[in-house]
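Milestone M4 deliverable, item 7.
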Amino acid sequence: MKALGLIVEYNPFHNGHLYHIEESLKKSNAEVVIAVMSGQFLQRGAPAIVDKFTRAKMAIDHGCDLVIELPTIFATQHSDIFSTAALTLLNKCQIDHLIFGSESGDIDALMGLQNKLDANRSAINQSIKPYLDDGLNYPLAYQKAVVALGLQSDEKSTPNNILGLGYIKARNAINPDITIGTIKRKQAAYHDGVLQTPISSATAIRNSLFEETKQPETAMPKKAYHDLISYRTQTGRYHSWDLYYPYIKYRLLTDDLSELRTIQGMDEGIEYRLVRAAKQATTFTEFLKMIHTKRYTHTRISRLLVQLLLSIKAVDVESQLNALPKLNQFRLLGQSKQGERYLKYLKHRADISFFGQVKKEMPPHLSLDVTASRIYYQPLMDTFISREFRPPYRGDNELNEATTIQTDITNDKPFL
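Output delivered:
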């Protein structure tokens, strides 16, 4: 069975994601779609707007056949670790194709760029230092260094292009035989905050939900929008950092500095800045403004706060990274009938196993996922943690049941 791999977060699932699945299937002619998805907390350092089970259901209902949770200890790290872990898991699932979304849409150009970056690693490292000494954060310093060396232009530094380069780098290291491709994003840019029809960015959708200015039903498949609203009705809210700031503040005001320094990413003395801000800020927005500088970006700070909230220590990340090639147990969040067939196909062909419900004894890379869920649901009623102990969602995503997005080739704009 030919398998297509996707690396996703679906925060939340929208028409652009549906377009990505459909176009990836056309490009790959795959028989099964395997999505590796972040859990309750995401790569750029934020709680997901709705929980992983709701998002897994959205994925299965709209074309994915298996949704496998990327363990939290990897899903909440910078792009190199995130990409390496996701590709490792997909490779263990014996995928034939990996296709990601990008602003570029040109896989040859992205692969050529990654080859140039690899070949000039030493020169890049030397060129970065003056920018870091000037107080810039590492991603911006890296970007300026590669542009100054003439290795790439500024437009290649958009978020999905950056993650795409990470995927290419990881695929080259893990299994170059995987066919890799990309689908160009349609209409909305990654950080575009304005709702559009039929495709908006997840950022614009989240903004509309939190600001309650306009409902994003035209930017999402009907089933996905129904699941989103249903979660809000059941829980009384969507998840954002505002719900978790009291826990962050408590940790910063009660933990010893020596304990804070053990947290993944807690370096350069940033713990002092965090503690000072926690003593003054009454809201998460105030807190973030007090910490943010050109060296400490919102993403870096947010990702660090996830590590603090979940007590992820640097030593634990290093240990799990070293163990990653040998990890063979993962959490299944959802499956279609075709996904079930593929699991049977894999059973005697791959050194990997899946479980759908939490067990009494969990390996370290998965026990953190349960902790993450306990913290994620903490602002809600106690009953919601029971979701963690449910079996995977089972759906039948037959083509005639799903909303599809087609492309009008005369103007290259998707329409419902």
